[in-house]
Design a protein that fits this description.
This protein is an alpha/beta fold and 265 residues long. The protein contains ten helices and eight strands. Strand 7, helix 8 and strand 8 form a beta-alpha-beta unit.
């Protein structure tokens, strides 16, 4: 069983990644430093296509040559195309056509867009926006990953998950694209999203770690049949800049092995 490595931190979230990695940075060098961290991860002996089938990348990372590095390991690239969310959790305006063209030119096979669900009344419009853009991505010959994230610390997490399932079920049955992958916050009730596997256009469902520890994320994921991982923080947990190569290799290999096992469901 394989999973998706989420390595798509943008300029706004990269600082937190580097802080957890234990390296000092400036605004001028932070993207270079996080790229070096990602390369170190990719060059691990267990970071390969038999464990990880796709990796989600930020545009800057693609421009630094990461797609070719992944290809050498038997891993396909997916491009993060959005420019963040507004206070309502909707995607900010961005040039999707330009991002589709960039993905095609750089041999990415799919895209990812993340919205954030804070309020129940916003769910329908968030999914509508995501699927409108996903249709255009499908038309461009790419696989869209739709990610309507529910924060793990939301006081109404399970209520939001109930409404999200209803909205996704209704709108996906009317989706005019040929396929879509869903990236969803690991639910409070195991197999909460299992019925979405029955929707014809849904070809894959993956879970995001969302700030859970590797142990918590893997436990929650293992309880959901048919859901693989698309982890970021849980993949890089316990990795530090000053680690020896041997210790770094041991730490990331343990994370990868645990995530692969949890993805078996």
């Amino acid at each position: 069983m394989t999973f998706i490595a989420a390595m798509d931190h943008s300029g706004g979230s990269t600082g937190g990644v580097l802080q957890r990695y234990g390296v000092d940075y400036t605004e001028d060098n932070k993207m270079e430093l996080v790229h070096e961290m990602r390369l170190r991860m990719v060059h691990s002996s267990n970071f390969h296509g038999e464990n990880i089938d796709h990796a989600i990348l930020y545009k800057d990372t693609v421009e630094r040559g990461m797609v070719e590095e992944l290809r050498k390991k038997g891993i396909k690239a997916i491009l993060k195309v959005d420019s963040g969310c507004n206070s309502q959790g909707l995607l900010k305006e961005f040039d999707l056509d330009a991002m589709i063209a960039f993905a095609q030119e750089n041999k990415c096979v799919g895209t990812k867009m993340r919205s954030i669900i804070h309020n129940i009344d916003d769910i329908d419009i968030i999914i509508e926006q995501q699927l409108q853009l996903a249709k255009r991505i499908c038309d461009g010959g790419l696989v869209p990953i739709v990610e309507p994230e529910i924060p793990i610390d939301s006081p109404n997490k399970q209520i939001l998950e109930d409404q999200l399932l209803k909205s996704l079920t209704y709108q996906l049955h009317r989706f005019e694209g040929n396929q879509v992958w869903l990236k969803l916050t690991l639910p409070e009730i195991p197999n909460h999203y299992a019925t979405l596997h029955e929707v014809p256009c849904v070809t894959r469902i993956v879970g995001l770690s969302g700030g859970y520890s590797t142990e918590q994320a893997c436990l929650r994921l293992s309880l959901n049949r048919g859901m693989q991982a698309s982890f970021s923080r849980a993949l890089s947990e316990g990795l530090y800049h000053d680690d020896s190569n041997e210790y770094f290799e041991t730490a990331i290999s343990k994370n990868i092995s645990n995530i692969v096992e949890a993805s078996r469901g």
